[in-house]
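thread: overnight batch results

M.L. [08:02]
morning all. the overnight job finished for the chain we discussed friday. pasting input first so we're all looking at the same thing
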Amino acid sequence: MQALQILTEKLDLLLKKYAELQAENKQLKKTISEQLKSIEQLNKKFELLEENMMAIQLGKNVLDNNGKLAMNKQIDTVIGEIDKILATLND
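M.L. [08:03]
and the structure it wrote out:
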């Protein structure tokens, strides 16, 4: 009779531990799910930031190219004026 009581107590203890482990497992799965959502959101933000950075870099390149074109036009104008002055000096 005493052996049966010991087995019953051990079984109750194991069932209690099992229930605790199930609750912990459920909580861990919930935490993992929340963290995966958070990672997904952070990845989306990162992708948007990368796109913004690339757009800014492209914008700078466009500005730089426009600046280069404007500078080339100014240089061509100055060279043209120098050529005119040299032509008038040679006459």
